[in-house]
């Protein structure tokens, strides 16, 4: 693991086009950067892609690093974090969803139904959830019970990303009205 001084020096050398300096940063920081990216994007393959893109940005923007604004690690990890968040916003995460079986929609509906059924029959949330359209309820529960991103839900249900976002947004509004 390189020290702050080593990283600062390596960034200065990267700014002048020294590829060996980029290698120093890579060897020192790549594994923890992948860990940071994985915490955000949740997939190893995607985290590796995020870090690769981050290193391209580090190489191209090393001249912009200003030690007066903070330590080099903070600058490096901010690039990784921003790149990971950009990937999530772009919806590229759905491209790496595992193969979706043909009956995935019905399986997801069954899982969503089971999640709803675990609530007591007299519970207001159960009543409100049961009042939602099946697809909307399924997408909402996949997001909030199973923890899937909008892109992953779109991939698993084989519907456009915008549709999933609209279903979830409308479902939340409906639940709020029903519960209120």
Automatic annotation (TrEMBL):
Q: Name one GO molecular function term.
A: DNA binding
The cross-references to InterPro entries, in alphabetical order and at most eight, read: RNA_pol_sigma-70-like, RNA_pol_sigma-70_dom, RNA_pol_sigma70_ECF_CS, RNA_pol_sigma70_r2, RNA_pol_sigma70_r4_t2, RNA_pol_sigma_r2, RNA_pol_sigma_r3/r4-like, WH-like_DNA-bd_sf
Q: Where is the RNA polymerase sigma factor 70 region 4 type domain?
A: 124-173
Family matches, as PROSITE patterns: SIGMA70_ECF
Q: Which UniProt keywords apply?
A: DNA-binding, Sigma factor, Transcription, Transcription regulation
UniProt entry tagged with the keyword Phosphoprotein: no
Q: GO terms for biological process?
A: DNA-templated transcription initiation
Has UniProt tagged this entry with the keyword Ligase? no
What is the official name of this protein in its record?
A: RNA polymerase sigma factor
- Name its species: Phreatobacter aquaticus
């Amino acid at each position: 693991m390189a020290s702050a001084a080593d990283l600062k020096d390596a960034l200065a050398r990267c700014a002048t086009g020294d590829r060996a300096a980029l290698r120093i940063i890579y060897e020192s920081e790549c594994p923890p950067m992948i860990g940071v990216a994985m915490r955000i994007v949740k997939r190893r393959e995607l985290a590796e892609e995020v870090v690769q893109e981050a290193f391209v940005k580090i190489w191209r923007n090393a001249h912009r690093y200003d030690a007066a604004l903070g330590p080099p690690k903070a600058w490096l990890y901010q690039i990784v974090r921003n790149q990971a968040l950009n990937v999530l916003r772009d919806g590229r995460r759905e491209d790496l969803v595992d193969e979706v079986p043909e009956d995935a929609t019905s399986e997801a509906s069954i899982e969503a139904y089971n999640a709803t059924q675990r609530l007591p029959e007299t519970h207001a949330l159960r009543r409100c959830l049961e009042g939602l359209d099946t697809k909307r309820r399924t997408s909402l529960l996949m997001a909030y019970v199973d923890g899937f991103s909008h892109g992953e839900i779109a991939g698993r249900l084989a519907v456009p990303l915008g549709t999933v976002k609209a279903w979830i947004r409308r479902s939340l509004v409906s639940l709020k009205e029903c519960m209120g």
